[in-house]
Amino acid sequence: MPSKPKTPKPSNTASSVRSIPAALYRAAVEQADIAISITDPRAVIEYVNPAFTRKTGFTPEDAVGLNQSILSNRTTPPEVYKGLWHQITRKQAWSGRLVNSRKDGSKYLADLTITPVLDDAGEISHFLGLHRDVTELHRLECAVRNQKALIESVVDGAPLVLALLSMEDRVLLDNHAYKALMADLRMQEPASVLLEAVRAQLGSGFGPFKPGAHAFLDQQIRLDRPHWRNPRWYACSGVWVAADKDGTDAFYDEQAEAYLLLVATDVTRMVMEQEKSRVAALHALLADENRQQALRESLSAAVYQLEGPLNVLNSVVTVMGRRGCDPAQAALAEALKAGQSALETLRAAVPALGSGVDSPVNLNEAVRDVLDLSAQKFLATGISVQWDPQLVLPTLQGNPKRLRTLIKALVDNAIEAMNTRGWQQRLLGIRTHADAQSIEVSITDSGPGISPELRLKAFEPFFSTKKGGEHHLGTGLSSAQQVAVDHGGSIELSEGPSGGCVAKVVLPLKRQGM
Questions:
Q1: What is the pLDDT of residues 355-369, one digit of tens each?
Q2: How much is the pTM?
Q3: Measured between alpha carbons, how far is 349 from 354 in angstroms, rounded to an integer?
Q4: Distances in Å between the alpha carbon of 195 and those of 211, 234, 334?
Q5: Per-residue pLDDT tens for 206-235?
Q6: In the chain, how many domains are there?
Q7: Is 50 exceeded by the pLDDT of residue 4?
Q8: In terms of Cα–Cα distance, which of 513, 194, 505 is closest to 366?
Q9: Domain containing 86: what range?
């Protein structure tokens, strides 16, 4: 026969519960600061504690024998009560909020928990109700929600790019203007782009953390995208924000968590107005530069052409002098002296290259200037331009006028290469790119290209292949190379991926000795 199952020993918890006197249970319930009521299965009140009386105004004499519905304000939706009874009659606890009335008729919001009490047979014998007056808490919750909604409406409606970032530059909150800029940047995170540019400008980092203080103020950032008609400018500021930590361990920790509020104002319209005046002045300056360059090249070419014959004449005079006295030698010597004097006069008349003062230069801006100034040439020659700038380009110390001249010389050279009768494909591509050490500007044309043996010769003064009609003119490349060298950089010519020619300019961000 199977052995008789052993009766399980009561747990220590059960033993300890049984050891607590019933009087202690009653005292705990009587003295609890939460309203407690006990009803039968039909919700008829059998017991209420003193806290119940304090909260509702109903004494035990008022409440016992009556249905719990004496507290109902009749404004709670019937569906709530249906859900309540559906749950507790299935022996499951229910928690929720009801609009109740006190004995004096005043309303309050009750946070209620009803627990079925089961007898030994597992059937519901009573219901235990615990409820708190959460009217003030609800008012505060509504005030917080309303304030949050109001702040969100103001932030989303503001014509500013706003983002709250953690100390790891992770975006925690943003607004509609921020999301719109992200879409324009093809889903690239605007905060990362703007903060990287700000850090590059500041060099020394953000200001020390102090709630409400500026980490940085009004740093103007230029953004260039191929699909944008014009660049955009944003005035960026950062404000330190402190917030209490919400972790359990931080309950007694008064240290605040640091955040950065990034505020970026689109100042493109204002800057574009300034740009109109600058570009108009640039057109006038360019016309003057072109005149001086034409005069410089003409006089330099004349000097170059005269130097050859004079050098030959000098050699003849020298040889004749070695042979002895010759009447012709004296005449030639006089002619040589006069020619050299005229040559020096001509050389002195060549306009000097402007020196200017070095300043921070954004090469995206310099390229844009050249493209704007060359717009008529592009239209006249049927050239299409593909502009592929790096979104944010670091500035370098240099001469803005000379760097712009360098780019224009390369662009003019590319235009001349493609402006060949019968040449169908006319596409000019310009790309800028930077790394930690240098900035690269690549100018690619779809012209006939230039042979490897002529790529170095193209930088010689006055070198031209125009008569051959197969290669670049080379005009201006010598002076362009000199500008690059003076800025610590270089220019390299190579064949494009689909033919044509690529002129790659590499300029260091920091020159040696600076």
A1: 567 889 999 999 998
A2: 0.66
A3: 15
A4: 19, 12, 70
A5: 999 999 999 999 999 999 998 888 899 999
A6: 4
A7: no
A8: 505
A9: 20-138
Residue 367 and residue 337 in one domain: no
Q: What is the pLDDT of residues 478-514, one digit of tens each?
A: 888 889 999 999 999 999 888 889 999 999 998 776 5
The neighbouring-strand residues paired with 220 are 235
Query: Element (H or E) spanning 232, and its range?
Result: strand 232-244
- Domain contains 513: no
Token look-up 């600076």 returns: 514
Q: Is residue 437 situated within a structural domain?
A: yes
> 3-class DSSP state for residue 386?
strand
Tokens of 392: 């944010």
Sheet holding 45-48, edge to edge: 45-48, 35-39, 124-133, 107-118, 94-101
Structure tokens at 351: 């306009």
Residues 389 and 452 in one domain: yes
What is the reported pLDDT for 353? 62
| Under 8 Å between Cβ of 267 and 234 | yes
pLDDT of residue 472: 40
Which residue among 138, 173, 192 closes a domain?
138
CB atoms near residue 160 (< 10 Å): 17
Sign of CA dihedral 445, 446, 447, 451: positive
